[in-house]
Amino acid sequence: MLVEHILHLTQKKSLDSILYYYADSVNYYARGEVGKDYIRRDLGYYFRNWDSIRCAMEGDIELMDTPRPDVKAVRFQSRFSVENSKKAVSGTTQNTWLVQRTHTGLKVIDQKQTVINNSTTVSP
Description:
Elements: H1 2-11, H2 15-19, E1 22-28, E2 33-35, H3 36-49, E3 52-65, E4 71-83, E5 87-102, E6 105-122
């Protein structure tokens, strides 16, 4: 449910609601350890850049144990489609998140994504 909820909030561009589900320090894509301020700026740019954002899970979630009893690895594929007045991009990604159970709920502590395929359409 966490993954589906965050994808839903992404489509709504609900930045503050999404940030609730991130830990204070996150191993964020290929950028290394970053804080919530960095994620706020990055997602804010993403939301401002695209007029429309659609994303959804594709297939099942794979839940895996980690050496830490309070952390699970979550692997899933997702479809995405983003567009603005200049172009549209769509495709599929492979995502792996590490999610930690905390006293305030589940928090993403590591987030990785690989684009499996994508296509771009440029508006005339």
